[in-house]
Amino acid sequence: MIENLSNKYNSFDIVRILGIVYDNAIEESLEFGDEAKIDTMIYQENGELEIEIRNRYRDTDLTIQDIKKSGFTTKKNHDGLGLANIEELSQSYNDIFINYQIKDGWFTFLMVMSI
């Protein structure tokens, strides 16, 4: 049970980060039809909150560095600010750890923060 976040975080920033991740996961999942899958894990222990969101991901030659760039998008008529916005939002906090991984057909987002 997640009781509450520390007052040092703007809850809007955290919701925005998670919203971007879920939007990206949902949009990528549309490419998989019946094979689409999004997994979420939320874990709290010893004053830390860990949130992991992973989704099926098409096999491409793109790297994490590529998709974190401002302006990168796979969508038509889109600004491509998603992961760049996450990076900007999280920079305001020195104790939020964010990691992305692409492996074995999965994109994984991990955020760890103190609570």
Key words describing this protein structure:
3 helices; 4 strands; 4-stranded antiparallel β-sheet; alpha+beta; single chain; globular; 115 residues
List the helices and strands and how they pair.
Blueprint: H1 11-29, E1 38-45, E2 48-56, H2 64-68, H3 82-90, E3 96-103, E4 106-114
Structural summary, described in words:
It contains three helices and four strands. With 115 residues, it is of the alpha+beta class. The protein has a four-stranded antiparallel sheet, covered by helices on one side. A hairpin with a 2-residue loop joins strand 1 (38-45) and strand 2. The relative contact order is 0.24.
